[in-house]
Amino acid sequence: MRIKKMLILFIACLFCAYSSSQNFPVLDETLRLKQLQPPTGKVRVVLDTDAYNEIDDQFALAYAYLSQDRIDLEAVYAAPFLNNRSESAADGMEKSYQEILRLLDMLGHKSTDGFAFRGSEKFLEDISEPIRSDAALDLVKRAMASSPDDPLYVVPVGVITNIASAILIQPEIIENIVVVWLGGNGLDWPNQREFNLRQDVLATQVILDSGVPLVIMPCRPVVSHFHTTIPELRENLKGKNELSDYLLDIVIDYSGGRETYSKVIWDVVAVAWLVNPSWVRTNLVHSPILTDQVTYSVDQSRHFIRIASELSRDAIFRDLFEKLGSL
């Protein structure tokens, strides 16, 4: 028992040393809790997406763009990624940027100047050297022009490098933004080696430790329930318009031609919480500590964040399909 207590103390000391090296503003807890309340009206949003990583980002971007009754989409940022669809983080970011442009064209958004921005070409390596990409610098500019009374909702649905860099460049922006991130797993999940999180552990540590108002959509065991199938997509998308056909085609291609196939459309859930928070149940919890072993450690003295615990799958898909069909 004594060894266990000493180990906990040691981890806490390491965290304190890490935190003390940052110059993050200390938010009043009343303000933080206010910012973490589910939004009740139309909100200003920037979407940060690794749009070419697979096929869910495309749905999320379209959903955010078409939900103009609840979302004022101000900008879209390309996030880096590295997997079998990219040769490097930089290549992943550039492919994502080109996919963003392709989607915006199908959505009828012809001028992307001041709207679509390239993000980081690599993952964060040192907190003293934030990556000054066009996306990070644009986020700093927009956030500094915002206020706690009219916060900018930042919705990263990929690796969180661009957002962490912006906070490191200008820590004061945490007073004016709310981050809604699809990343990691539930607090009780055995590890956090989920794709969006594990690509840039350091960036995630910055986000969790900065104190920025944060809403997490954990992939497992929550967002992993947001499945659809090719027959359902064919029924609701085929022949509706160019974008709907494109979304159907990329899912079919991603399936490898299998007819009996289901797919999680992960990233839509982060947008859905802004469209209608009742569709994604969330709870207030203390921010976890992300260890270098890519696991969460709990400290009840930490600031609050909000985390999703369940979702209304049918309600979200119904709204998504209706909006895609109306284009």
Question: Can you give a write-up of this model?
Answer:
With 327 residues, this protein is of the alpha/beta class. It has one domain: Alpha-Beta Complex (Inosine-uridine Nucleoside N-ribohydrolase, Chain A). Helix content is 40%, strand content 17%. It contains twelve helices and twelve strands. It has helices at 2-20, 29-35, 56-66, 89-106, 134-144, 161-169, 195-198, 201-210, 230-237, 242-255, 268-275, 313-325; strands spanning 43-49, 71-78, 116-117, 152-156, 177-182, 214-217, 227-229, 262-264, 280-286, 289-290, 296-297, 304-311. Strands 3-2-1-4-5-6-12-9 form an eight-stranded mixed β-sheet, sandwiched between helices. A two-stranded antiparallel ribbon has the order 7-8. Helix 3 links the parallel strand 1 and strand 2.
